[in-house]
Write a structure and sequence with these properties.
The complex is a heterodimer. By secondary structure, chain A is mainly α. Chain A contains 11 helices and no strands. By secondary structure, chain B is an alpha/beta fold. Chain B is built from 26 helices and 14 strands. In chain B, the strands form 5 sheets. A 4-stranded parallel β-sheet of chain B has the order 2-1-3-4. A 4-stranded parallel β-sheet of chain B has the order 7-6-8-9, with helices on both faces. A two-stranded antiparallel ribbon of chain B has the order 5-10. The N and C termini of chain B lie far apart (about 65 Å). The chains are: A mainly alpha, B alpha/beta. At the A-B interface, helix 1, helix 3, helix 7, helix 8 and helix 11 of A face helix 2, helix 4 and helix 7 of B.
């Protein structure tokens, strides 16, 4: 089983994710676009970009409609962004960053622990709030399998990730070593940590799921939103 | 909408395969993206008047979108790859499901696109609903009232099945009324006049039930000296196929009006105050008919132009009551006419207030998407209109103006249902009432003659019979007869000799006539028509030979 998760699945994941996303976008682009603006339109493309980016950064539209959902979604997305950034360390050593901030020796692990827990905590809070919201009577009517599945998967990934830090710590060097193995096409099963295995497995499933689910809003949100502007 | 006659049109009933391929054909880039991008976050809930009025989660736009997405998901073929992938519950739809879908896409959505505004993803619910509506239309499941309206329009050229003679008669009648109203027997409402720039198209509702709106608009055109024409054949701006999602019928109907524009050589179409009619001609017809060699202007736009360029003069003091404006969805959000109606109203009335929210954020009146033709959903429609009723109440306005006939009908019903006690009018009615007719004429030689604010000739030297007739028309006297001329000559002669005005009694006595009867209105009228110079504050009466007080 480990053999499958650590040696075969990573390549499947990368393939499904990249090809799936390209194929998805090509499917969209193979079809004609209909004009669907809302007047008055933006004066220039620059304004469109500014508004779209502004909404991605600040979630302004959400804020104007619901302060509570805004809090949840910002916790969630901000946490996710930090988590994803934090995971860069699982692939490359970011020594220059540590030197920059003058963090040395064992402090590196302490800082990484604190930051990781914070970011993970933000996502956890976000996921739990969003999931709770999904179970309110109004949202029950709206929600479908996709919604529960994505949040449930994220919850499990976050929980395995955080508990790994707390109870079954695994050093970044070990993961970096494995990641380099995958990238150099010499994957090796040299990690023995059940929580990590689960964390890694679930994350790969979610990544493969992305191009086929509502998670494509990662790509389609700026596109669809800009259509209303010009 | 009432029907002139029940006209049944043979229509093809779509098979399951055809329904499937119809849905596929509707799946453009937008739809494919929208259906997968909806997060079902529920932010759209509070933007929808149906949800706000009822609190029923099934009224939330995201729920409606989901019903259509499910529909796509269930089709055989490459749907699942495009929209979702994990469930495939069989291919067809049974009767019950079709009925349910009909309630959602026809009964609970007016395609007003307000949720698109608040959606963080920018999902256009209106477009999604139209695709589903088209499929139901193909399955003969569109509401009967709506489908009949389309069928009658395709068959007869207007959505009430009105005969051309009846139409022309109504226009002629309104022409006479207009002539009486402004006292100019030469005013025309041109029909089938070739070679003018503007084709004016109407809503059959105006012709059939509210012909005075025709008169009001024609009066504005007249005041602005517009050159325009009506068509006796295809004069209907509406297009209910926009609402039932049938692109083929929509193209046919839009083609009627454009064909007339071609026939009469008009390059600009002026739409009466009809929201969806303007929108479909301006934004959809170029796509349906694949041509872009024509311009479409909304009536409010034209009037705002007249006002800003000084082509018409308005006296807002005639409309003293508080007026508010309801932005029709198709005119504002989907039509880009947000400033224009406000320019028109601010110049036509004394007290204008906006609804909250207004402009692109305005709530749908509840009558959009052809809702007024669907009698089966009347209850829901009026229930959802509570939002609008509250909005209107909050302004304490006495008059609600709007620029769309569906809105007018719905607002009138709201007014009755929620006992708002307001008057619902088209903006053109207020403008027409406020119009101050032009004070300039052109002689047959082409020279202009100007009349001052008070109605006196600015350059008395130009006076001749032609000018006198124009002045008389301005004072609502009509054609001048021999007795009139006698009086006028007398007054002018008197004025030259004595450099003063004769008292009316003096004229009556000398000529044996009744001046006040010949020149009704203010006592000054006769002197204005006679072309005397505008007097100062004190009129210089010449009282020789009469007993003056």
């Amino acid at each position: 089983m480990d053999q499958f998760i650590f040696v075969i699945l990573p390549y499947v994941t990368i393939f499904v994710f990249v090809v799936g996303l390209i194929w998805r976008i090509r499917l969209w682009w193979s079809k004609p676009r209909a004009k669907a603006v809302l007047f008055p339109v933006a004066k220039s493309n620059f304004v469109v970009v500014r508004r779209v980016v502004g909404d991605i950064v600040l979630f302004g539209k959400t804020f104007s409609m619901s302060k509570s959902l805004w809090t949840m979604t910002v916790l969630f997305h901000l946490g996710l962004l930090l988590v994803v950034l934090g995971h860069i360390r699982t692939v490359i050593e970011i020594g220059f960053l540590w030197r920059w901030f003058n963090v040395q020796g064992a402090d590196i692990d302490h800082v990484a622990f604190a930051m990781g827990m914070t970011a993970g905590g933000l996502v956890l809070a976000g996921v739990i709030l969003l999931l709770t919201r999904r179970f309110t009577p109004k949202m029950r009517v709206l929600s479908i399998f996709d919604d529960y599945f994505v949040l449930g998967m994220l919850l499990m990934i976050i929980l395995t990730g955080l508990s790994m830090r707390l109870w079954m710590p695994i050093h970044a060097d070990e993961i970096q070593h494995y990641a380099r193995g995958v990238l150099t096409l010499q994957p090796a099963v040299d990690i023995n940590n059940a929580l990590f295995t689960w964390h890694f497995f679930l994350a790969q499933i979610l990544i493969m799921y992305l191009p086929f689910s509502k998670l494509v809003h990662l790509v389609s949100k700026p596109i669809a939103e800009s259509w209303t502007m010009r | 909408m009432t029907k002139a006659a029940t006209i049944v049109r043979e229509r093809h009933l779509g098979t399951r395969e055809e329904l499937s391929s119809f849905l596929l054909s509707k799946l453009n880039r937008n739809l494919a993206v929208y259906l997968q991008t909806c997060q079902r976050c529920g932010l759209c809930a509070d933007s929808c008047h149906y949800y706000r009025a009822t609190g029923d989660p099934k009224m939330i736009p995201a729920y409606k979108i989901e019903q259509v997405r499910k529909l796509y998901q269930r089709q055989r073929g490459d749907w699942r790859r495009k929209v979702s992938f994990w469930i495939h519950r069989g291919d067809g739809l049974d009767e019950e499901e079709l009925q349910e879908l009909k309630d959602v896409v026809f009964g609970r959505c007016t395609m007003c696109r307000r949720c698109t505004l608040t959606c963080p993803m920018g999902i256009d619910t209106g477009m999604i609903m139209r695709a589903a509506r088209g499929m139901l239309t193909l399955a003969h499941k569109a509401p009967k009232g709506l489908q009949d309206t389309v069928d009658i329009h395709v068959k007869t050229g207007n959505n009430m099945g009105m005969e051309s003679e009846e139409f022309v008669e109504t226009v002629k009648w309104m022409e006479e009324e207009l002539q009486k109203d402004i006292g100019d027997p030469n005013v025309r409402i041109p029909i089938d006049k070739a070679g003018v720039k503007h084709l004016w198209v109407l809503n059959p509702r105006e012709v059939k039930f509210f012909p005075l709106l025709l008169q009001a608009q024609a009066k504005i055109f007249h005041a602005a000296g517009e050159s325009y024409t009506l068509s006796s054949k295809y004069w209907d701006v509406t297009n209910y196929a926009l609402f039932n999602g049938d692109d083929k019928d929509a193209t046919t109907i839009a083609g009627y009006v454009l064909g007339e524009a071609d026939r009469l050589g008009c390059d600009t179409i002026i739409c009466t105050e009809c929201g969806h009619g303007m929108r479909q001609l301006k934004y959809m017809a170029p796509i349906w008919l694949k041509r872009s060699d024509f311009k479409v202007r909304a009536f409010v736009e034209v009037v705002a132009d007249y006002i800003q360029s000084g082509r018409i003069k308005l006296n807002p003091t005639v409309n003293k009551e508080r007026v508010t404006y309801h932005d029709p969805c198709n005119q504002a959000r989907s039509g880009n006419y947000i400033e224009e109606p406000r320019i028109v109203l601010r110049n036509s009335v004394m007290d204008f207030v906006d609804l909250t929210p207004h402009g692109r954020n305005n709530f749908c009146c509840g009558g959009g998407g052809g809702a007024l033709t669907m009698s089966e959903y009347r209850k829901w429609r009026l229930e959802a209109a509570k939002v609008k009723a509250d909005q209107i109440k909050a302004t304490e306005a006495k008059i609600v103006a709007t620029s769309c006939h569906n809105c007018i009908d719905q607002l009138t019903e709201i007014n009755r249902h929620y006992k708002l006690n307001v008057k619902v009018v088209n903006t053109c009615e207020l403008t027409a009432d406020a119009i101050v007719l032009p004070r300039r004429m052109f002689l047959s030689t082409g020279a202009p003659v100007d009349v001052g604010e008070r109605g006196y000739l600015k350059t008395p030297a130009v006076w001749n019979h032609e000018v006198a007739q124009f002045l008389a028309t301005n004072e609502r006297i009509g054609e001048l007869k021999e007795q009139h001329w006698q009086v006028l000559e007398y007054v002018r002669d008197y004025n030259t000799r004595h450099e003063a005005w004769p008292l009316p009694q003096r004229i009556d006595k000398d000529l044996g006539v009744n001046v006040r009867r010949l020149f009704p209105g203010s006592p000054e009228v006769v002197f204005k028509v006679a072309g005397l110079a505008e007097p100062g504050d004190q009129i210089k009466w010449h009282a020789v030979g009469t007993q003056n007080n």
